[in-house]
Design goal:
This protein has 16 helices and 37 strands. With 676 residues, the chain is an alpha/beta fold. The longest helix has 28 residues.
Length: 676
């Protein structure tokens, strides 16, 4: 069990550039901010010189050694953050005369000037020797940057490598000589997946797992204690390249515990509401698909650095809310990568020090090992293998859509968790997009038989396409776009009262995704209906089928397609339906009447804990929660920030709601213990 929340500071000090003064400032900052680890950048960002030679790297390692000698007596460890493996992007960089790497080639046949092909034997030999050299400095961690991927290597077109070496490998697996054009046509074929898609995904997966193994073994051969960490980006993008999270992390770990730095979705300050949606789709998704023992140190990056990027308040909000990931610490990229070093006047040290005791205390609860309760949002590591593509072009068509319910429930104040077990039973299970294509028909029937089900429109359409529409009484369905004129608003059915309004309405015209008009084969419990601007009914809205399937008939979300669903009427509707459909024992915890309060429900060996994150600039004066039956009429305690102890709080039962006599400040993360 971790004893503290690790502050790992990422910093560039360039050899020979104000080096002594920068080291002195670093020492003072670490003591004032209570930093636990310093991660020295090597060859980073503006100072990046492409693929450096071993001789060019050595001065950076000499600086790291001097830093280690200064910091070790203070109990502060030293780590290394090389800024590139394949290289993020060319930016005019070239290979050196001694380097003869195969270069990455995009879908149009354009070749990079410096980004390496991940299959290249010479690059593989080079990267092994480089990481062996890093390991010789005996760092606590050495990191693999998030350029360790097949996408986002400008100026190449987004989407992997199609060099001659790769084309030969694709051809070998296909059993025939393939042109780039023929392979791409099959890979991105609309409808049923072509065999070339599997070849693409499996080749990409095997390549990156092998590269991870090469790096991990190179480090382990030189330093027995050094840990190799992976920096990652957006999971849907990695899914399009067939990423094997377990294979890569275990390959890098080389027998040690895996380590990851998941992306926190904000380099500059955004609205906390927008951040909450990104946190659900990116950060929580990443931590759901990795090996459960992996140590988690999320990415706090203020780019282009300093308080011009983010306020100290928002930075603290990001750090504290990252506790919901089960994080053991955080990586802090607060200052530029040009070599200016610490800027003490920015004042980060005060905020970091003030929050440390609270963070340490929550870390010792070991919430990462907890079982999460709430709606089970089903996802699959194989989603990209099975999706049916529509028309268009570009590799981004391979991005799975599986986070709608996760984002919606986060915003509406409902506890949820990602679930990779398609044999889950006795739960509320949310299905998004084409996730059902990754499950065999018998498994789908079992899933519906043993759970309460939430369907978005695309999941409902997928069910019909698979010939399983009877599971939701769907006999026919067709898509309608918001600009067709037949969609204006959704209105609650007669007798349904939400927000104290009979016939309450929700927009169906903008930012709700496409609407799926469903013809049901049997009478269903219609909670709402969709109308055009003239009051003519277009079709059913929210509906309950067979007493345990809830259909929200919107899908094919793009851009801001979720935002139209974020309003008090939708919140009250969904929460009411969950209370109605879910057995009392598995009713998900919900915060009522407040927007963007994220609810995290943890069950540990030491008890039940609720973590509430206020992703809003508004304070909450009274917390009204709906709790599972087993948590009602219990003793409640709150972790006090001043003493870092749990102290009792009063709570009153008011009908179905439990009202906590406590407040929740704007952007605050609070932890509650529920005692028997």
């Amino acid at each position: 069990m971790p004893e503290k929340f690790l502050y790992s500071l990422r910093l560039t000090i360039q050899p020979g550039h104000h080096e002594e003064a920068s080291m002195a400032d670093l020492k003072a900052f670490c003591q004032e901010a209570r930093i636990d680890d310093v991660m020295f950048f090597i060859n980073g960002e503006e100072l990046n010189q492409g693929h450096q030679t071993l001789a060019e790297i050595q001065p950076w390692l000499d600086l790291v050694s001097r830093g280690r000698a200064m910091l070790q007596p203070l109990g502060i460890t030293t780590s290394i953050n090389p800024w590139s493996t394949l290289l993020h992007c060319d930016r005019g960089r070239q290979l050196q005369p001694s380097q003869h790497f195969d270069l990455m080639v995009d879908t149009y046949g354009r070749e990079a000037t410096a980004v390496a092909c991940p299959l290249c034997p010479e690059w593989r030999s080079y990267i092994a020797s480089v990481y062996a050299l890093y390991a010789s400095a005996k760092p606590e961690f050495v990191w693999v940057e998030d350029d360790f991927r097949l996408h986002n290597h400008a100026p190449l077109q987004w989407g992997g490598c199609f060099c001659d070496r790769h084309m030969a490998e694709y051809s070998r697996r296909a059993g025939k000589t393939l042109s780039r054009e023929e392979f791409l046509a099959g890979l991105l074929q609309p409808g049923e997946p072509h065999p070339y898609r599997r070849i693409w995904l499996e080749t990409s997966r095997d390549t990156m797992v092998e590269n991870a193994r090469i790096i991990g073994q190179a480090v382990r051969a030189v330093s027995a204690h050094t840990r190799v960490g992976l920096m990652s980006s957006v999971p849907s993008v990695h899914a399009a390249e067939g990423r094997d999270w377990h294979g890569i992390l275990n390959g890098l770990a080389a027998g040690k515990t895996p380590v990851i730095r998941p992306h926190l979705p904000s380099y500059t300050e955004v609205s906390p509401q927008s951040y909450a949606l990104g946190f659900a789709a990116v950060s929580r998704m990443t931590t759901a698909v990795i090996p459960p023992e992996t140590e988690i140190y999320p990415e706090l990056e203020n780019f282009p650095h300093s308080r011009f990027a983010k306020s100290k308040t928002f930075t603290s909000f990001q750090i504290e809310s990252a506790l919901a990931l089960g994080a053991e610490g955080i990586t802090l990229n607060l200052y530029d990568m040009i070599g200016n070093g610490i800027l003490p006047q920015e004042g980060y040290q005060t905020a970091l020090a003030a929050n440390k005791d609270f963070l340490d205390t929550v870390t010792r609860l070991n919430l990462k090992q907890a079982r999460r309760s709430g709606v089970q949002v089903l996802v699959s590591r194989q989603h990209a293998w099975h999706m049916h593509l529509e028309g268009g072009s570009g590799m981004n068509r391979l991005y799975p859509s599986e986070t709608f319910w996760a984002q919606l429930l986060s915003a509406l104040g409902v506890a949820w968790t990602y679930c990779l077990d398609d044999q889950v039973s006795g739960q509320v299970v949310a299905l998004t997009g084409q996730i059902l294509r990754a499950i065999d028909p018998a498994g789908i029937r079992t899933l519906f038989q043993h759970n309460t089900i939430l369907l978005d429109g695309e999941a409902a359409m997928t069910l019909l396409d698979l010939g399983l529409g009877d599971l939701a009484a769907i006999q026919a369905a067709g898509w309608r776009q918001a600009d067709e004129g037949c969609l204006a608003y959704e209105q609650a059915a007669e007798g349904q009262i939400y927000c104290k309004i009979s016939g309450a309405r929700i927009s169906a015209q903008s930012n709700v995704g496409d609407y799926l008009k469903i013809d049901y084969a049997a009478k269903v419990d219609t909670i709402s209906a969709v109308f055009d601007a003239y009051g003519q009914e277009t079709g059913p809205g929210l509906a309950i089928v067979h007493g345990r399937v809830l259909v929200l008939p919107y899908g094919r979300f793009s851009g801001s397609g979720i935002f139209g669903h974020l309003n008090p009427v939708r919140q009250e509707m969904i929460q009411a339906m969950l209370q109605r459909l879910a057995p009392a024992s598995i009713r998900p915890a919900c915060v009522m009447d407040e927007p963007f309060i994220q609810v995290h429900d943890f069950q540990t060996a030491d008890g039940r804990f609720l973590m509430l994150v206020n992703s809003s600039h508004d304070a909450v004066e009274k917390l009204r929660l709906v709790l599972p039956e087993s948590l009602m009429n219990r003793r409640f305690e709150r972790l006090d920030r001043a003493s870092c102890r749990f102290v009792p709080i009063s709570a009153q039962q008011n009908d179905d709601a439990t009202v906590f006599d406590t407040t929740l400040a704007a952007l605050e993360t609070a932890v509650f213990a529920i005692r028997t």
